[in-house]
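Hello Y.,

Per our agreement to keep a running log of every chain we model this quarter, I'm adding this entry. I've kept the format consistent with earlier entries: sequence first, then predicted structure.
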Amino acid sequence: MTFGSVAARVARLTWAAGVIVMAHLGRYAAALMVAGYAAASSSGGGPAPHGLRRRTEQEHTGPVQWVPAWPGPVTSADGRVVPMDGIHDLGGMQGFGAVDHLPAEPPFPGRWEAAARALMMIVSGAVDASGGEFRHSIERMDPGHYLTSSYYEHWLTGAATLAVEHGLVTHAELEERAGGRFPLSGPVLASRVADAGPDVDEPRFGPGDRVRVHGWHPPGHTRCPGYVRGKTGTVVRVDGTHSVPDIEAHGTARRYEPTYAVRFDAADLWQDGQHGVSVHVDLWDSYLEPA
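Predicted structure for the entry above:
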């Protein structure tokens, strides 16, 4: 059996996910029907080459544990420290070549891409997924799949993963409709957050303060890029209080903290002699300590 192009394969998976989820969603059916039709009319395709294990019922409904608001090592059920630095955190990595960019590129070069975006919006609304949970559904992709797939294939994988994890569909249903293997992201390694702790209303730092980013390796979602961990920078702006994404990605608990724009010297980050070049990163209060 021969299969079509990568775009055709993903279009078929998008269509399959849309049809299956539509059958389970009632009031979202009309929007999904439009998304499914757009993907189906794009082109045919075949099974995905990546088969990933979805997390088991035991993993999905395990005991709720409190996770420290900032971080420190997080442990698994058997007491082992569980580090995680996903392949998605590509900042500062080399060897990927130039970024391909077309100035006149349309928002959705393929109709299946628009369908994948619509599908993610519908699924996220149906399961009430936070921005952090949505991002983490993509961050958990198999590294080989992540690096060899496009932006909206990431969205499609995330949507399918959330749909399975929240019980909208089963992995078997998706694979039956797709006619082959349907890739899902790996299991969540961090514990659910039951108690986020109190909100932090007053900023600890102000413009001009020197701060150091904690050098930690969270097992779950974070908005703290790996290339600034352990590095020292200068606060240039306080940007108000916002929900900590590391917490909202792992349950319904929320905590609000001040956020800061922090300036780092590029030479300190990359060790490549770029003196006078700065990199600005937005960081939450709990990511930082006084330098």
